[in-house]
Structures are given as C-alpha cells and as structure tokens.
Design a protein that fits this description.
CATH class of the largest domain: Mainly Beta
Number of helices: 6
Low-confidence stretches: 10-26
Structural class: alpha+beta
CATH architecture of the largest domain: Distorted Sandwich
Oligomer: single chain
CATH topology of the largest domain: Acetylcholine Binding Protein, Chain: A
Length: 387
C-alpha cells in the first residue's frame, strides 16, 4: 500500500515538473524571439520620433543615494544618484499574445536608443549620464522604455559662508539634453527626489529638495535643488568655544599686578592665539565667498579689541611708575571731572599718584573691553539667527 502511494506521488511530481518546465522553456523562447524581432533592423543611432512635428517627451526623476562630499572651499558638490528616464519608442512595440503574453522585456540599454542627458554645471567631465556603464532598460509592449543609469556627479555649487559654521547651502543641478534642441521635451515625473535608498552624510543634513523643469526658448532643463545644512558641532568645539573662552580671559590681564611683568606677555599671547584661530577659520572659507563670513569679521574685531587691550596695558604701566602728576595735567583734569560728576565737588588734593591713576585705568579698560567683546559676540549671534 505504501509502495503504491509513493509511486503515485512520484508520478504527480514528474507531471508537475514537466508542465512548469515546459512553461519556463516557452517563456524563455518567447523572450528570445521577441528580442530578435525588436532588434532586427533596429537603429539605435536614430531618434525615436514617430511624428517630427511633435517633440519626444522624456520624463525624468532622480534617486538620491548619498551626498558623498561637499567641498565648500572649491564649491563642488559630489553626489551619488540614479537618473530615471522614461520615453516611448514606436520601434519597440509588440503584441503580447504573439509572444506568450510577454508584456515586458529587460535588455541592456546599450542595445537601444537612450536619451543623452548631461549635467550642465558639471565640474568633472561633460558626458551623458551612465555613458560607459551597463544598465538594464525595461521595455513595455506599448513601446514605453524606462532606464535608470547611475552616476557620481560633481557639480558646481556657489556657497554662502556668511553664517559659517551654522550655514545652509542650496545647490542646483541642471540636466539638459545637449544638442537635442526643440525635438525633445523634458518633463518631471516627481516634484521631489526619490529617497528610497538615501544614506545620510556625516557632516551635512539634507534639509529640503525639489525637482522642476525650466523652459527657455524651447530648450528644457531639468533642475534639482538640494538644500543641505552643516552639522556645526565640530567647528563649534574647535573654533568658537576656544574663542569665547579667550574672550573672557583677555581683559583679565588688567587684574594682574603690574609689578609681576606678566601683563604684556599674556596680552600678546592671547592676540597671537586669536590670529591663529582666524587662520584656521580662513582656511575653511573660500576666498571668493560673498558675502564674507561673519565669523571672520567677529574674530577680526576681537583681534582689534585685543590690540587696544595691549595699548591699555602700556598706558596703565606707564602711569603706574609715575609718582605724581603735575597740576592741570590731562589726568588731573579727567579725574576732577569724574569726581565732580560723582560727588559734586573736585578733588581736594592737587597731586595725583600714578598708582591710583593706574588702578582706575585698569578698571576702565577692563570694563570697556568686556563691553566691546560682548557687543561683537551678540552681533554675531543675532546675525546667525536672524540675518
């Protein structure tokens, strides 16, 4: 009994394999016949224009795989994309019933005509997308063809570094069918980029993106706007925080005792440190940046304030070693004016001691330096947030 059941199972399995094996063989043969039929006499060098009075519509959409790099000094954006193109080729139509109900066929794109789409603002090479690569094109029975060649694109992207390192950059990629003229019409299949396979970048956040077609005198360009925002943590820790710390320490040179002789050395050291950070920031910002980076302006203003601090140190030290000032000297007139404003009467003594003058000047210079530094920092913060 068991032997009979096993024999019946083997028979059914043999019939099943034979039936589906025959179907697969017929489908493969149908595909071979269809492939030979479509490409026999096919000229891929000719434009597939069924009616010369109407332009051939080529629909475009872009898969953004990743933002590989953005060189803000050289103003070059490098991205990895796949450009999806679809059009209708009347020479690639067939009746599915004649080929085993085969509705679609995938063949190498090198065997058929494909649109030559160029990146107009490319900085690397000016050649069609996917020119030397091999991709599969999907052909439907109604003559509709879809091809999605991939490429690494390097395009020019003018930068606005005014708010560095909190800047947002908008780059526009322009795709065009070069030398095609009015025979072709580009259309956008989507208002946004296709982000199914997107990999985030370590240094930039993708803020916004859009796709649209621009027509200028029957010449179409397919434009892609990519808006990216810098991740500011690295430059904040490396540049901004040390500068803020030095800004707090710089006016404190007036607290040092003049007799120690360390005031001038510390003031010059802080000034040179500011110059060092200015060099670091300048190396990141392109020389052609317009408008100018406001962080560089802030550092330059702080360097100027640091220079005034050195001058204040010199004046304070000079006054410290003067025993007394003569009657009607500029210092005595100034201090008498301050006392009249404060107490309503002038100083009783006609002589001013140099150490007393130096102490008052230290307080004035320290306070004034902090006010100027505070104004510079607040101006930068206000510009970055609201400018």
């Amino acid at each position: 009994m068991n032997t009979r059941l096993i024999a019946m199972d083997v028979l059914y399995l043999t019939i099943f394999i034979s039936m589906f094996g025959q179907i697969n063989t017929e489908t493969l043969n149908d595909s071979k016949r269809l492939y030979e039929k479509l490409l026999t006499g096919y000229k891929k060098q000719l434009f597939p224009l069924e009616n010369s009075t109407k332009p051939l519509e080529v629909g475009l959409s872009l898969w953004l795989k990743m933002i590989n790099d953005f060189n803000d000094v050289n103003e070059v954006l490098t991205i990895v994309v796949a450009l999806r193109m679809n059009w209708t080729d009347p020479s690639l139509r067939w009746n599915p019933k004649d080929y085993g109900n085969t509705d679609t066929l995938r063949i190498p794109s090198a065997d058929i005509w494909i649109p030559w789409v160029y990146v107009l603002n490319s900085v690397d090479t000016f050649e069609p997308i996917g020119k030397d690569a091999t991709f599969l094109a999907l052909i439907c029975s109604n003559g509709s063809v879809t091809d999605a060649p991939g490429a690494i694109i390097k395009s020019n992207c003018p930068t606005d570094m005014s708010k560095f390192p909190f800047d947002v950059q908008t780059c526009t990629l322009k795709f065009i069918m070069w030398s095609a003229g009015p025979a072709f019409k580009l259309t956008s299949n989507s208002d946004e980029l296709l982000m199914d396979f997107f990999i985030p970048n370590a240094h930039w956040n993708l803020v916004n993106h859009k796709a649209y077609v621009v027509q200028d005198k029957k010449l179409y360009t397919y434009n892609i706007d990519i808006c990216i925002q810098r991740k500011p943590l690295y430059f904040t820790v490396i540049i901004i925080l040390p500068i803020l710390l030095l800004c707090l320490l710089n006016p404190l040179v007036f607290i040092f005792p003049i007799e120690s002789g360390e005031r001038m050395g510390l003031a010059i050291t802080v000034l040179l440190t500011f110059a060092f950070f200015l060099t670091i920031a300048a190396n990141v910002v392109p020389t052609s940046s317009s408008p100018m980076c406001f962080l560089l302006c802030m550092i330059f203003s702080i360097i100027t304030i640091s220079g005034f601090i050195i001058i204040g140190v010199i004046i304070s030290a000079r006054c410290h070693y003067v025993e007394t000032f003569d009657h009607n000297s500029s210092f005595e007139i100034f201090f008498n004016f301050c006392c009249i404003r404060k107490n309503g009467r002038p100083l009783e003594s006609k002589k001013l001691h140099g150490k007393d003058v130096a102490k008052v000047l230290d307080i004035l210079f320290c306070t004034f330096s902090y006010v100027l530094i505070f104004i510079s920092i607040i101006t930068y913060i206000f510009f970055v947030k609201y400018g």
